[in-house]
Amino acid sequence: MVAQSLLMGHPLSSPDHARHALLYMYRIRKFEEAVEDLFGRGMMHGTMHLSIGQEAGPTGMCLALRLEDQITSTHRGHGHCIAKGADLTRMMAELLGKKIGYCGGRGGSMHIADAETGNLGANGVVGGGIPIAVGAALASKMQHKGTVAVSFFGDGAMNEGAFHEAANLAAIWKLPVILFCENNHYGMSSSTEKAFAIDRLADRGLGYGIPGVTVDGNDVVAVYEASEAAVARARNGEGPTLIEAITYRWKGHSRSDKNLYRSKEEIDEWKDLDPIPKFIHRVLEANLLRQDEIDAIQKQATDQIIEAVNNAAAAESAEPSGLLEAVFKAVSA
Amino acid sequence: MVAQSLLMGHPLSSPDHARHALLYMYRIRKFEEAVEDLFGRGMMHGTMHLSIGQEAGPTGMCLALRLEDQITSTHRGHGHCIAKGADLTRMMAELLGKKIGYCGGRGGSMHIADAETGNLGANGVVGGGIPIAVGAALASKMQHKGTVAVSFFGDGAMNEGAFHEAANLAAIWKLPVILFCENNHYGMSSSTEKAFAIDRLADRGLGYGIPGVTVDGNDVVAVYEASEAAVARARNGEGPTLIEAITYRWKGHSRSDKNLYRSKEEIDEWKDLDPIPKFIHRVLEANLLRQDEIDAIQKQATDQIIEAVNNAAAAESAEPSGLLEAVFKAVSA
Amino acid sequence: MSDRMLTMAEALREAMGIAMEERPEVFILGEDIGIYGGAFGVTGDLYHRFSPLRVLDTPISELGIVGAAVGAALSGMRPIVEIQFSDFTAQAMDQIANQAAKIHFMLGGALHVPLVLRTPQGSGTGAAAQHSQNLETWFANVPGLKVVVPSNPADAKGLLLSAIDDPNPVIFLEHKLLYKIPGRDPVPEGAIRIPLGVSKVVRTGKDLTLVATGIMVNKAFEVTEKLEAEGISITLIDPRTISPLDMSPILESVEKTGRLLVVQEGPSHGGFINEVIARVSESSSFGSLIAPIKRLAGMNIPIPYAPQLEKAAVPQVADIEVAARNLVKEWR
Amino acid sequence: MSDRMLTMAEALREAMGIAMEERPEVFILGEDIGIYGGAFGVTGDLYHRFSPLRVLDTPISELGIVGAAVGAALSGMRPIVEIQFSDFTAQAMDQIANQAAKIHFMLGGALHVPLVLRTPQGSGTGAAAQHSQNLETWFANVPGLKVVVPSNPADAKGLLLSAIDDPNPVIFLEHKLLYKIPGRDPVPEGAIRIPLGVSKVVRTGKDLTLVATGIMVNKAFEVTEKLEAEGISITLIDPRTISPLDMSPILESVEKTGRLLVVQEGPSHGGFINEVIARVSESSSFGSLIAPIKRLAGMNIPIPYAPQLEKAAVPQVADIEVAARNLVKEWR
Ligand SMILES: Cc1ncc(C[n+]2csc(CCOP(=O)(O)OP(=O)(O)O)c2C)c(N)n1
Ligand SMILES: Cc1ncc(C[n+]2csc(CCOP(=O)(O)OP(=O)(O)O)c2C)c(N)n1
Ligand SMILES: [Mg+2]
Ligand SMILES: [Mg+2]
Question: Domain B15-253+264-309 class?
Answer without folding.
Answer: alpha beta
